[in-house]
Amino acid sequence: GAGVSQSPRYKVAKRGQDVALRCDPISGHVSLFWYQQALGQGPEFLTYFQNEAQLDKSGLPSDRFFAERPEGSVSTLKIQRTQQEDSAVYLCASSLAGRVLYGYTFGSGTRLTVV
Amino acid sequence: RKEVEQDPGPFNVPEGATVAFNCTYSNSASQSFFWYRQDCRKEPKLLMSVYSSGNEDGRFTAQLNRASQYISLLIRDSKLSDSATYLCVVNTPGGGADGLTFGKGTHLIIQP
Fold this sequence. Notes:
The structure holds two protein chains of two kinds.
Chain A: E1 5-7, E2 10-13, E3 19-24, E4 31-37, E5 44-50, E6 53-56, E7 65-68, E8 75-79, E9 88-95, E10 105-106, E11 110-114
Parallel strand pairs in A: 2-11
Antiparallel strand pairs in A: 1-3, 3-8, 4-5, 4-9, 5-6, 7-8, 9-10, 9-11
Chain B: E1 4-6, E2 11-14, E3 19-25, E4 32-38, E5 45-50, E6 55-57, E7 60-65, E8 70-75, E9 84-91, E10 100-102, E11 106-111
Parallel strand pairs in B: 2-11
Antiparallel strand pairs in B: 1-3, 3-8, 4-5, 4-9, 6-7, 7-8, 9-10, 9-11
């Protein structure tokens, strides 16, 4: 596609519910990143894929968070047993190069509200 | 100390004025630097990369000072449409995330 596409755009989840957030990167982009942005904060790194390999998941806040990219294209971020502190915008970004040289292209994000 | 620090503002600036803000980074091994712009409830978008020699793009000038470990952004002849949050972004290869570290952003409000 022309840009990074994320769905859903908005998600309201009851505390304890599982959610799945989807990211469709720009076609051909090797690298895919997930970020979490809380209100009034900058984006915080969650995890990084190069093709289907998850090379870094050091930013995932707990074992309730899980990400996958099985075919090296679409990625899903799953949050189990959501908590109120998980409320944030989840941003996906992709880039052509394995190492960032020219910045990323972000999707519009998924705004998750846990009630 | 945070890896990337910015003054959150807000900076309230009259239209047509010049405004500048800085960002400091803690890791001297950082190699790539960027300014991103983020409008309210939108995703961050790359504004410009920051090169060692400094670079200019229209009304925007970015500078890098490696010795003091800061980057700056200067906006001349500011427009109402410049109102946004400006995120300072640093890439440190081998730093673990293999990605970018974002500052919290500087909120800029251009007033008519």
